[in-house]
Amino acid sequence: MSAFADRFNPVSLLARLKSLRSGGGGGEAVPIHDWQGPTAGQAPRIAGFDTALVWCTLGLLALGLVMVYSASVALPDSPKYARYSSTFFLTRHAFSLALAFIAAVVVVQIPVNQWERWAPWLFVASLLLLTLVLIPGVGKGVNGARRWLPLGVMNFQPSELAKLGIAMYAASYMVRKMEVKERFFQAVWPMAVALAVIGLLLLAEPDMGAFVVIAMMALGILFLGGVNGRMFFLSVAVLLGAFALMIATSPFRRARILAFLDPWDPVYAKGKGYQLTHSLIAIGRGEFSGQGLGGSIEKLHYLPEAHTDFLMAVIGEELGFVGVSCVILAFFWLTRRIFVIGRQAVVLDRVFAGLMVQGIGIWFGGQALINMGVNLGALPTKGLTLPLLSYGGSAILLNLVALAIVLRVDIENRQLMRGGRA
C-alpha cells in the first residue's frame, strides 16, 4: 500500500520529473503521453485533445439515449404516466443532452487556474443549494425524498453539483495544506468537518448514495494527495463506522440491507427486495446476447425506475451479457483514461488539476461500480444513476461539465508538452 501511495504521491512524481529534466535517473526518460503521427525525418507532434475520450463519451451517451427510450416507451400505459406520450422521456433526455453539450462547450474554454480560484466558492454554493432543497415549498419531493429544485426546464439536483464541488474543493484544499499534510489537526480534521456538514445535508434529504460517492471522492483525493497512511486509514475506519451506525439506527436502511441479503424472502420480495428481484430476473432473461432491442418484459411496469436507477437491468435483458460487458469495459477505459490525464497533470507540476481530475475519475468509476453492483445484486439498493446513460437532466449536465473540465486539463497538458503555456 505504501508503494502504491508513493507512486501517485505528487511530491514523489515531481521529484521524478525534476530528475528526468536534469538528465538524472540513469536511463532514457519514458514519455508521459502518446505521440501522434511521428514519421521518419519529422518531429513528433501531439494532438490537441484526447479524441478517444470524446468518442467513448459520445458512444455511452448515444447508447443511453436509445436505452432510455426503450425503457420508458411503455410507461404511458400505466395510470401514473397516462398524461405522458411514449416519447416524453426521450424528448426530455434529448433536451438535457443538448443543454449539457452547450454547457460543456462553454466550460472547456475556461482555464483550469480559474477553476482553482472558484473551487471554495463552488463548494459553498453547493452547500447553500443542499440547504435550500430542504426548505418546504422550495425543494421538490419525489417518493419520500426531497432532492430537487424545480427550475422549469429541468429539476436540478444539488447533490450532482456537490460532487463536482467536492472534487475541486478537496484538490484545492490539499494544494494549500501540502506542507502540513502529515499533521492530523491541520490537514485532515478541517476536511472531515466539511465532509460531515455535507453528509448531514445529504442524509436529511435523504440521499445516502450521493454521500457515499462524495465520501469516496474526498478520501480518494486525500490519499492521492499524500496524506499520512495512518491518518487515512483512521479516517476510512471512522467513516465506515458512521455508515454502520446510520444503518443500525434507521429501520428503513436496515430493511434494505436485510432485503439485499435475501431478496427472494416472501417478507421482502414484494417490498424492499422488489426492485432487486425484478432486476435479477431481467438480467437472467438476457442470457448471452439478449432478447433484442425493445424486447424487455421487465420494463413493462414490473421493474420500477427502469429508465433511471435500473437502466443497466434493461440493457442486460435486451443486449445480454455482450451488452453489459461492453458497458463495463467502456466505463473501465473511461475511468482509467481520466486517471492517466490526472497523473500527467501532477507530473507537469499542476497538482490541483491532477487531483481534481482524479477525483472526477473516482466519481465516475465509483458511481458506475455502485450502480452496476446494485443492478447485479452485489450491493444494497441505492438511488444512484448510471453516469452518462440513465435518464436525469442535472446528472447528465454535471457529467458532461465534469468531463469538459477533464478535457480542458488534457488540452493544457498537451500545450505544456509542446513547450507552450497552459
TrEMBL record:
<keyword id="KW-0328">Glycosyltransferase</keyword>
<keyword id="KW-0961">Cell wall biogenesis/degradation</keyword>
<comment type="similarity">
    <text>Belongs to the SEDS family. FtsW subfamily.</text>
</comment>
<keyword id="KW-0131">Cell cycle</keyword>
<feature type="transmembrane region" description="Helical">
    <location>
        <begin position="118"/>
        <end position="138"/>
    </location>
</feature>
<keyword id="KW-0472">Membrane</keyword>
<keyword id="KW-0573">Peptidoglycan synthesis</keyword>
<keyword id="KW-1003">Cell membrane</keyword>
<feature type="transmembrane region" description="Helical">
    <location>
        <begin position="347"/>
        <end position="370"/>
    </location>
</feature>
<keyword id="KW-1133">Transmembrane helix</keyword>
<comment type="pathway">
    <text>Cell wall biogenesis; peptidoglycan biosynthesis.</text>
</comment>
<dbReference type="InterPro" id="IPR001182">
    <property type="entry name" value="FtsW/RodA"/>
</dbReference>
<keyword id="KW-0133">Cell shape</keyword>
<feature type="transmembrane region" description="Helical">
    <location>
        <begin position="184"/>
        <end position="202"/>
    </location>
</feature>
<feature type="transmembrane region" description="Helical">
    <location>
        <begin position="208"/>
        <end position="225"/>
    </location>
</feature>
<keyword id="KW-0812">Transmembrane</keyword>
<feature type="transmembrane region" description="Helical">
    <location>
        <begin position="52"/>
        <end position="73"/>
    </location>
</feature>
<comment type="function">
    <text>Peptidoglycan polymerase that is essential for cell division.</text>
</comment>
<dbReference type="InterPro" id="IPR018365">
    <property type="entry name" value="Cell_cycle_FtsW-rel_CS"/>
</dbReference>
<feature type="transmembrane region" description="Helical">
    <location>
        <begin position="390"/>
        <end position="411"/>
    </location>
</feature>
<feature type="transmembrane region" description="Helical">
    <location>
        <begin position="232"/>
        <end position="252"/>
    </location>
</feature>
<feature type="transmembrane region" description="Helical">
    <location>
        <begin position="310"/>
        <end position="335"/>
    </location>
</feature>
<dbReference type="InterPro" id="IPR013437">
    <property type="entry name" value="FtsW"/>
</dbReference>
<keyword id="KW-0132">Cell division</keyword>
<feature type="transmembrane region" description="Helical">
    <location>
        <begin position="94"/>
        <end position="112"/>
    </location>
</feature>
<keyword id="KW-0997">Cell inner membrane</keyword>
<protein>
    <recommendedName>
        <fullName>Probable peptidoglycan glycosyltransferase FtsW</fullName>
        <ecNumber>2.4.99.28</ecNumber>
    </recommendedName>
</protein>
<dbReference type="Pfam" id="PF01098">
    <property type="entry name" value="FTSW_RODA_SPOVE"/>
</dbReference>
<keyword id="KW-0808">Transferase</keyword>
